[in-house]
Amino acid sequence: MSMNIPAKNLQLLQSPASFHANLLGLISNARSRILISSLYVGSTEKNLVDALHSALDKNPKLQLHLALDLNRATRANDSSVSLLLPLLKSHPSQIKVTLYRPPSIIASTLVPARFNEGFGTWHPKIYAVDDDVLFSGANLNSSYFTTRQDRYILIRNAPTLVDWCQSFLRAVEGISYTLALKAGIDSGRHDIIRPGYHLRWNGGKTSPFATRFKAKEALLQLSQGKEPEKIVAEPGHVTLTPLIQAGLFGVRQEEQFLKRLLSSVCGSKSIRPAVHLTTGYFNLHAPYRRALLSNHNATFDLLVASPKANGFFGSKGLSGRIPEAYTLLERSFMSAIQGAGRADEVRLLEWRKPEWTYHAKGIWVSPANDQLPTMTLFGSTNLSKRSADRDLELSFAMSIPDANKEDADVLHLRRKLSEEVKGLWQFGQAWNGAQKDGERRVRRGTGILGWLVGGML
């Protein structure tokens, strides 16, 4: 399903602080609905919870739906669930908290709680209030509001889009748990009872391990509607297409779209399109990598997190080796560029900003390197093997019909997209992953570890 959105209704935010301020501002003015989808809510986010409390107090008709990941939101004693329980207690008729569970037996029984997330998570980021929606790749944690760079797209007055997002969250309820204060007399065999709260399984008699068919059917129903090429361009509008990626359920809309895009984008002999691609976790899904390297009709500029800009840098235990694993993946990619003879057409940069980490992801396509973008992909995907095969992701392709490229509102949006690229790439430095010391030191055994868990990166 695709939809037309007035270009003047889109605003691109630049900083984590702006993301935080706009999110709180939206919540404070809520009238009918708040939809929040994130991996988790940080245990210290009292300001956010207080804002939700205040909004619900002011308007008894206001309904709040929080969709989070089961494993991440229940990890440790100071979990997202612990933070949200007082909110649920004070407004039980206004709040619904759903917790997505991947259909993997291994994920629940054989590995430590923190590593469960490697087998699949709920990853969509939606922050919608009434008919406005803020999309990002950011989670709800203090670092994402201060020193962790992401992308932030605010769309105002878009009821059809927010309705679709609400339908998306409802579609996944059937393969999720709902948070309750205590177990009821109708508790099911798949429910989870923990000290202080109860997780009610919404799938009825369907086992949490057998949700693949049910989830695929529900998710694919959301895609019914006009295809992008059949949408009639309206003056001053852009076209927005939701792309669901749920490899565990056989739903691969984003993958199908990106394989076509990366392999077919082309221009003329004298002018080649420019593709900018960024991700904080560079383990490019193999079909994307093949499409990119085989396309000689466009140039590709890639921006990835430097080791110190990786959120796992300096972590204790095995997670501290994650930046090292990405160094090995980047070296493999650079070798592939050389082997394909694409060194002049494919460039890899690393994002560096002192004391900051990098979490932005997306793609921009311009008719040429010196022209404004006419398409962008934004959302939750890291464009990685894990995003394609394990996590449940939601992204959006925003395209600008040829007839609207010079429209004043559309032209303003295209300039803002160009500024967004420049704002991220200004911190891009030449890739130095070939070095063997300092932050690029790869300890013995990391290669084997990366091979074993490569699909989780």
Number of domains: 2
Mean pLDDT: 89
What is the CATH C level class of the largest domain, in words?
Alpha Beta
Query: Could you give the distance between the termini?
Result: 30 Å
Overview of the structural elements:
Functions in the biosynthesis of the anionic phospholipids phosphatidylglycerol and cardiolipin. It catalyses: a CDP-1,2-diacyl-sn-glycerol + sn-glycerol 3-phosphate = a 1,2-diacyl-sn-glycero-3-phospho-(1'-sn-glycero-3'-phosphate) + CMP + H(+). Pathway: Phospholipid metabolism; phosphatidylglycerol biosynthesis; phosphatidylglycerol from CDP-diacylglycerol: step 1/2. The model has no long low-confidence stretch (mean pLDDT 89). This protein folds into two domains: 3-221, Endonuclease, Chain A, CATH 3.30.870.10; 237-456, 2-Layer Sandwich (Endonuclease, Chain A). The chain is built from 14 helices and 22 strands. The protein has helices at 16-28, 46-58, 70-73, 80-90, 105-109, 113-116, 159-173, 212-221, 253-264, 286-294, 322-339, 385-389, 408-425, 446-453; strands spanning 3-6, 10-13, 33-37, 63-69, 95-100, 126-129, 132-136, 148-149, 152-155, 176-180, 192-194, 197-201, 237-246, 251-252, 274-279, 299-305, 346-351, 357-358, 362-366, 375-379, 392-399, 428-430. 32% of the residues lie in helices and 24% in strands. Helix 10 (286-294) links the parallel strand 15 (274-279) and strand 16.
